[in-house]
Structures are given as structure tokens and as C-alpha cells.
Design brief:
By secondary structure, this protein is mainly α. The chain is built from 14 helices and no strands. Helix 8 runs antiparallel to helix 9, helix 9 runs antiparallel to helix 10 and helix 11 packs antiparallel against helix 12. The longest helix is centred in the middle third of the chain and has 29 residues.
Length: about 350
């Protein structure tokens, strides 16, 4: 039997051991244990991206902005600013897209060397591309889209968006050229040759890849021919371009007849032009009867005629959508020299251009 004193000593020893154990235990606040949890700015960024992907645009913007304000030196700062712009872009609507454009431009200004700067410029161009209207309507958005795509191709020539931007630029220029062509044709049918000829000359020099450049060349040659005198002597040059550069055009035989009547030499078709037009005719887009019927109710233009084109888009700047450019002059379609064209409105349109002589 253990004595009473022994039991007291035993209980005292147990108590001391408990107290000692408590004094050695790590306090969770005073001595925090480092875990593998993510950094707080990364957590904010991931949360904002998740909100953006689930169309919670306002929440995403607030979270991105919190990251920017709280962690100004974060490695996610640039991507957060781009995320804010993307949230406006995805949300859509006129006012939101205007805000998106401003945010993208700010991003390009502050982070011009980042790979995402090309993506931001592409988004700016697409904002105007999606807003452009049919050829017979206000060309302002189409002109702005042309300007922004040209800026992208000139500033980021090796970027991943170059192939898509080049095709979108061809489509924009198809719309602009179609609008100019209808004006030229209107003046031609009206017999106003002095108004038609400079516009046609400008059109065929600026947009050689336009799907109806051969038609424009024929109208120009015919207009010069009926003007008589020195003007008529220039007409075979434009007929010759149809035969040489657009050898598969339905206007080739008409052009040859006009040149034969004027006893002008008829050139041989350019083999490269034959190959180009063969490829383009094979890969050309089509809209179909239903598409043409429904197109009457659509605000956006049909750009299928620009599909399959292989030539480089025109890189010269033009028009009132070029506020930052310096004035100059050029007629070369491949040049980067800035030019200003006389703004013209859709004064009228007239039926099928194939009806013209």
C-alpha cells in the first residue's frame, strides 16, 4: 500500500508535468507555422479571373481593382489592368465597349513591351470592326477599324494576331472599297465623268485586292474613253490592267474588244495573276440566297467577298479616322506613307454594276 504522502507526491508530479507541457506548446498567433497557402495577391487575381469567366463582371472589376490598390508592386498588376479591360469588353454594349477601349489604350501606354499589348491593340481594332456598318452607311467605324488594324500590323509585325488581323483588315477594306465603288458607279451612270474619274483612279490604286477592282477599272476606262481627247488616250492602260492583272474577270473580253477598236496592243495575262485568281475563286466565301435575304435586316456588312484573298492588305492610312497621322500623299497600295482621301458620302447608288457598259 502506497502511503498518503506517496499519493500526494504522485499527484504533484503529474500537475507539474501538465503545466510544463502547456508552457512549451506553440501558440498559433505568436509563433505562426508557415504553410503552402498561396500569396494574397495571387488569391485575389484567381478569384477575379473566376468571376470574369462566370460573367460576374462588376465583381471581377472590383476584385481586380482591389489587387491594384492593395498590391501596387504585385507581379499580377499588369494582368489585373488587362482583366478590367476584358471585363468591359466581354460585357458588351456601346458604353461598356467605349470604356474597354479606354482601358486597353491605358494598358498599351503603361505596358507597351508586354506580349499582351498586341492583344490589347487587337481588341481595340475588333471593337470598331464589330461596330462597322454596311458600305452605303456611315464609314466612320470602318475607317477606325482600318486604322487600328494597320497600327497593330505595323507595331507588332511578329505577333500571334498578325494572320487574323490581316484578314480582318481585308474585310474592312472590302467594305470601304464597296462604298466608294457605289459612289463612283453612281457618278458614272449619271454621266458626271469629272466626278467619277478621280474617285475611280483613287479606288483602283488604293484597293487592288477589292473584289470588284476589275469592274472599277472597266468603268474608269469607259469614262475616259467617252470623255474624248487626251483623256481617251489613257483608257487602254486601264483595259490592259484588266487583261493582265485580272485575267479571269468577266470583263476581260469586253476590255479586249475596246482595246482592239482603239488599235491598242493587248497584253498577255500574268501567270501569277492567273494562279492568284484561281485560288481566290476556289476559296471565295458565299452567303447564299437566305443570307442575302436576311442581310437586308442586318446592320453589319457582308464581308464574304474578302474571304480567300491572298494579297496583302493596304497599309496606307486615310480619312478622318487618322487624327494622329501627318499629311502626305501616295498611290502605292503596299506603302506605309500616310495619305488623306477626300471624304465622300453615299450620294447615291444604282443597281447592278454589271449593267454598266
Amino acid at each position: 500500500m502506497r502511503s498518503k504522502a506517496g499519493w500526494v507526491l504522485l499527484l504533484l508530479a503529474i500537475g507539474l508535468s501538465v503545466v510544463s507541457g502547456c508552457s512549451l506548446r506553440r501558440h498559433p498567433i505568436e509563433n505562426p507555422i508557415i504553410t503552402d497557402s498561396q500569396q494574397p495577391d495571387k488569391e485575389l487575381f484567381d478569384r477575379a479571373v473566376d468571376d470574369l469567366e462566370h460573367s460576374r463582371y462588376t465583381v471581377a472589376r472590383l476584385t481586380f481593382q482591389t489587387l491594384i490598390n492593395t498590391y501596387p508592386d504585385s507581379e499580377f498588376l499588369a494582368k489585373a489592368k488587362l482583366g478590367i479591360a476584358d471585363s468591359w469588353y466581354r460585357q458588351g454594349g456601346t458604353s461598356n465597349l467605349l470604356q474597354a477601349e479606354a482601358e486597353y489604350r491605358d494598358f498599351i501606354t503603361f505596358f507597351p513591351t508586354m506580349p499582351e499589348a498586341g492583344e490589347a491593340q487587337m481588341r481595340v481594332a475588333m471593337i470598331h470592326y464589330r461596330a462597322m456598318e454596311k458600305p452605303d452607311r456611315d464609314p466612320t467605324r470602318a475607317l477606325r477599324a482600318e486604322q487600328e488594324f494597320q497600327k497593330l500590323l505595323l507595331t507588332y509585325p511578329d505577333g500571334p494576331f498578325v494572320p487574323l488581323a490581316s484578314q480582318r483588315l481585308r474585310e474592312v477594306q472590302e467594305v470601304l472599297a464597296q462604298g466608294a465603288f457605289e459612289i463612283c458607279r453612281f457618278y458614272y451612270l449619271l454621266g458626271a465623268d469629272k466626278a467619277a474619274q478621280p474617285r475611280l483612279e483613287e479606288l483602283v490604286e488604293r484597293y487592288p485586292s477589292f473584289s470588284r477592282t476589275d469592274q472599277a477599272l472597266y468603268l474608269l476606262g469607259s469614262s475616259l474613253e467617252r470623255s474624248g481627247g487626251e483623256a481617251a488616250a489613257k483608257s487602254p492602260n486601264y483595259y490592259a490592267r484588266i487583261v493582265r492583272d485580272y485575267p479571269l474577270s468577266p470583263r476581260v473580253e469586253d476590255a479586249k474588244k475596246r482595246m482592239a477598236a482603239m488599235e491598242a496592243p493587248i497584253p498577255e495575262p500574268d501567270p501569277a495573276a492567273v494562279a492568284r485568281m484561281t485560288y481566290e475563286n476556289t476559296h471565295a466565301g458565299s452567303i447564299g440566297l437566305w443570307g442575302r435575304m436576311m442581310g437586308v435586316f442586318h446592320r453589319h456588312p457582308n464581308v464574304s467577298a474578302a474571304q480567300g484573298k491572298t494579297g496583302p492588305p493596304t497599309m496606307t492610312a486615310q480619312g478622318p479616322a487618322q487624327p494622329e497621322a501627318a499629311a502626305g500623299s501616295s498611290s502605292s497600295s503596299g506603302s506605309t506613307t500616310t495619305i488623306f482621301l477626300e471624304p465622300v458620302g453615299a450620294e447615291g447608288s444604282a443597281g447592278n454594276p454589271d449593267d454598266a457598259p
